[in-house]
Amino acid sequence: xxxxxxxxxxxxxxxxxxxxxxxxxxxxxxxxxxxxxxxxxxxxxxxxxxxxxxxxxxxxxxxxxxxxxxxxxxxxxxxxxxxxxxx
Length: 87
What we know:
Elements: H1 2-8, H2 13-22, E1 27-29, H3 33-48, H4 67-76, E2 80-82
Parallel strand pairs: 1-2
């Protein structure tokens, strides 16, 4: 809050806190098996009607090596890290 709202944006700390409070809890969606499966389902529909020139594997589009780091950063920032939840 201090670095961004006060130092970078020139707002008072009070305004920065008010803005943060108005945004609610920050959520980072997990790049999990459910997300990859959902994406693969969409790919399969598109492929099923002949719109893809080559086979596509959804798992190749996600880099999940940093899941642990993201989960730790979210926890330390007071954010949530959802696993397998959809909106």
